[in-house]
Structures are given as structure tokens and as C-alpha cells.
Amino acid sequence: MKEIYIKNLKIETPIILAPMAGITNFAYRRLLKEYSCPLVETEMVSDFALFYGNKETINMLKTDESEHPLSVQLFGGSKESLVKGAKVLFSLGGFEILDINLGCPVNKVVKENAGSSWLKNSRQEELYEAIKAVVDISPVPVTCKIRLGWDEESINVVSICKILESAGVSMISIHARTRSMMYSGTPKYEYIKLAKQSVNIPIIANGDIDSLEKAKEVLDITSVDGLMIGRGALGNPNLIRQLVTYFSTGGIIKDSTLIERVEALKKHFLYLEELKGEYKAISEMRGLSSHYLKGFNDTKKYRVKFTTMNSKSQFLDICQEILANLKQ
Ligand SMILES: Cc1cc2nc3c(=O)[nH]c(=O)nc-3n(C[C@H](O)[C@H](O)[C@H](O)COP(=O)(O)O)c2cc1C
């Protein structure tokens, strides 16, 4: 895999962490950086929330020097609000790429004309104007994250990519599903190949890449410039290291053992505790911990325990129990 340039920002081996609301906060990105992730991205932040100085949203932008380059993702439903939100982000600074969310399928977001609502054929002119307006005032490269289109009947990824390129966007990540597919159904990678052939800016493929084999398959089908990984690395951050190593040197890194997964899980919790305190960290890890046990036999009872834990000491006890049972 060759290096890419996002405008003039060089990314050596473009394996990119997908933005995930509620997950890709500073703590999780910090963990992924330790697994050699070349480019990480924040959770999406709302243009209105930024404009009104929402404290929780501003806190979502926490970063430090260890995780750069950093991409910050903005979502919004109109040119005016996106520009306003982007201006707040630029005044805060601390990131190298501004990514615009044009793919979120969630009703709450789409209802506000944001996320994948931008992919509707009826909005193409408006889309061009909005993205160009953001590009025109941006001191950093602007990228976009999209889907194949609104629904099966209106797959328009090629025309959307052309519009975004002409508006001055420097890279496009494409989730190989339509809005109406939400997160299920087989990704249609062949459309990403068509998009790649239609523009000159880097194209990144996304959707269901959860192993080295799958990554190679998606690259073969699409001939894209890089890959974006979301759920596949959740609970298995070693996947990022495996992909970066293979695509930079051809080297093969073994899958994580359960012991290594539990070590990663503990780090995830500790970083989250540092960021948000024990109470919130435990509450979030109730849902996240079981991802670290995925694929290992006889771990169901621990998953159940994680979902009902109430304190750090309970969390650490469950981790300890998993390790102790392994050694028997
Ligand atoms: C819990 C969750 C939260 C997500 N939040 C965002 C988000 O904030 N912005 C975005 O562009 N995509 C978001 N996505 C979509 C992912 O970035 C990605 O496109 C999708 O999960 C498909 O890739 P994957 O199969 O590698 O996970 C989210 C996905 C999940 C599962």
C-alpha cells in the first residue's frame, strides 16, 4: 500500500480508524495509537452544539500531541450551520484534518438534513455549495465520509465523489452500503471501485473489514488508496497493527491471545477512567468489554458479568478471573 497525500499531509500506510460516536473518544484513540494506527478520527461533533458552546461537545475534542495527525468529524444539515461549526473548530485548533459526515444513517441526524441526508439526488447542488464553503475557509484539508447513496434505487456514489472533488475535498472515505441498508446486508465494494476510477483524490474503502484476509479482498476488488476500520478493531486493536505491518512490510503479526485481549481491555478502561472518571468509564465499558472476548470459547459468563458491573474493582476482578481460569 502506497503512502497517500491528504492535500499536503502525508500518511505513510493509510489504515484509518473509522469515527464511531460513543467509542472513538480520546481514550480509545490513545489505545489505537499504541497499536500503530496511522490516522485516527474523533466521534462526530454537531455544528450547532459547537456554535452554542456545548460543554460536552467541546470536551469531545480533547486531544494531546501523541495522537497527531488527528481528524475531527463535523456533522450538520446546512451550509450556514456547517460553516459556523467549522469556524468554531478552527478557532479551537488542535487537529490536522476536518472530516464532514455525509453518511450517518441515524434518524435523529437525517431528520436535521445532516449525515446521509446529504446524499439525496435532490440535494447535489446544495451539497456542492456547502462543502465548497467549508473548504474555502478551512486552514486544514477537508475530507468527507459518505455511503453509496440514499437507497438501492439511487446509488450515486460516483456523482457524489465528483461533486466533492470539484468542491475541493482532499479525500473521501466510502462505507460500502446505502443509507437504507443501515449496518446490515453485504457491503457492495464494487461501487467503491467505480468511485475510485472516477476521481483523482485518495479514496478509502470502509465496511466490514475485520481481518487481514478481508482487507486484501477489499483492496483487490476496489483498488483504493487506503482502508478504514471501525467495528473490526473494536475489542481487537491488534487488527490495526496487523494491517499496518502487512501493508507496509509484508510482515505477518499473529492474532492476539485472550491474555493480550484482556490487557488491551484493561488499558481501554484505564484510559477511559482518566478521561471521564470511574463512574462513566464503568458505564461505557459495560457495553464495550464483551467485544474483547469475541471469538473466544467459554467467555459468555464473563460477558454477562461485564454488563452488570458497578465499579472499577469489579471490572478488575472479572479480568483477573478470566486470566486465572486460563492458567488452570
Ligand atoms: C457505534 C457506531 C458509531 C458510529 N459513529 C459514526 C460517526 O460518528 N461518524 C461516522 O462517520 N460514522 C460513524 N459510524 C460508522 C462507522 O464509521 C463505519 O462507517 C461503519 O461502522 C462501517 O465500518 P465497519 O464495518 O468497519 O465498522 C459509526 C458506527 C458505529 C457502529
Note poorly predicted spans: none
CATH superfamily of the largest domain: Aldolase class I
**Terminal-residue CA separation:** 43 Å
Distinct small molecules: flavin mononucleotide
Strand content: 5-15%
The CATH topology of the largest domain, please? TIM Barrel
CATH class of the largest domain: Alpha Beta
Ordered list of secondary-structure elements with their pairings:
Blueprint: E1 4-6, E2 9-11, E3 15-17, H1 26-34, E4 40-46, H2 47-51, H3 55-59, E5 70-75, H4 79-92, E6 97-102, H5 107-110, H6 124-137, E7 142-147, H7 157-166, E8 171-175, H8 189-198, E9 203-206, H9 212-222, E10 226-229, H10 238-249, H11 258-276, H12 278-288, H13 300-308, H14 312-327
Parallel strand pairs: 3-10, 4-5, 5-6, 6-7, 7-8, 8-9, 9-10
Antiparallel strand pairs: 1-2
Helix pairs in contact: 1-11, 4-6, 6-7, 7-8, 11-12, 11-14
Q: What this model shows, in words?
A:
The protein has 328 residues and is an alpha/beta fold. Helix 1 runs antiparallel to helix 11, helix 4 runs parallel beside helix 6 and helix 11 packs antiparallel against helix 12. It is built from 14 helices and ten strands. Flavin mononucleotide is lined by residues 18-23, 43-44, 73, 101, 103-104, 145, 175, 206-209, 229-232.
Which key phrases capture this entry?
2 domains; 328 residues; TIM Barrel; single chain; 14% strand; alpha/beta; Non-ribosomal Peptide Synthetase Peptidyl Carrier Protein, Chain A; eight-stranded parallel sheet; binds flavin mononucleotide
